[in-house]
Amino acid sequence: MAPLLILAALLGLAAQTQAASGTSQGTLVLKTIPATPLIELGRDQQFLNFDVAIQNKSGTTMRLRRIDLEVFDADGSLISRRVLDENGFPSGMETLPERDAPAHGVLGLFNPFYGWPLRADIARMRYTLTFSAQGAPNQSASVSVAPQVYHDKTALMLPLKGRLFVLDGHDFYSHHRRQDIALPEAARAGVTANPVRYADDFVFVDAHGAMYRGDPREKKNWFGYGQPVYAPAGGTVAAVVDDVGEASWDGKHLHIPKLPADASPFGLGNYIIIDHGDGEFSALLHLIPHSIRVRKGEQVAQGMIVGLLGTSDAGDGTYAVEPHLHYCLMRGANVPASEGLPAYFESYTLLLGQQEIPVTNAPVDSGDFFRT
Fold first, then answer.
1. Cβ–Cβ contacts within 10 Å for residue 284, how many?
2. Residue 5: what are its φ and ψ, rounded to 5°?
3. Same domain, yes or no, for 182 and 119?
4. How far is CA 212 from the centre of its chain?
5. Nearest to residue 365, comparing CAs of 116, 115, 193, 170?
6. Which residue range(s) make up the domain with 112?
7. Structural domain includes residue 155
8. pTM confidence score
9. Which tens digits make up the pLDDT trace of 212-249?
């Protein structure tokens, strides 16, 4: 379940050049990433998927003790107040993977207050973080953000047809979301944004929710392997890689092929990136080798078959190969430099047990069963 293998290791890091909306109090500087957080309108809630980078200018490690949040509407009226502190056994602060801002270093924080009612008119959010250091009084620093609701400019269809499951999406616990944006390795890896901030990994399932029959290490046992992948909208093909091999199972061992020279260092496998115009680009990853039917510069129409679902560069020797389609909408074609965007799909049927619920112009996310 670890697509974007190298990307997950390197890209979880949006470089500090992408940060903005920062304030400084003494030795602490807070910046949000991306500069203007986006509000994703879900089926039942609105979501704020952004990060805070805390720069510690002091020569002493500082430990995060408390997070306070105030939320205001467009008229400046207080909507809500939230607190994350050390009360509890274990406390809510223990849900944070890292709490120590190293001396002369940076601590990354995933926004812990990510889900809000759809009716909430969120215009401004003010975060105050309180830190302690040995032998010194507590210090606090604040940052205010003005998030913007994002509406796609491109009418998107889902890029697969059939009964589907979101193996891993972009919720707070997904691997696409849980990328440490503050580590200094970002710049060294050439990563300046998180393109998978709103990504989804799709697999085909049967009526009982099974993803495969037989041994899951054999890719052809997966219901989705070899299924057509469709262009989610019209546009110009901005990038193509089609010669990355797939892992194979011989009954005893998983074999990982050598990557060709043109393979992405970020674990994309065989992929297509489509420029839809208006600053929106679709990325379709992990396709079967030599299955891609389009070339860079070609025009594609919505619903055109562009390749076949596979598992290229989507596995290693530590877990079973999982044929799936990784899809994400981005601001550009240069993957490590393009921030992700919320993707709203024109229509699908949400499957909740025996309930079938028609949905229009909405995202999907981790754990969703649906039909197109």
1. 25
2. -55, -60
3. no
4. 25
5. 170
6. 14-149
7. no
8. 0.90
9. 999 998 999 999 999 999 999 999 999 999 999 998 88
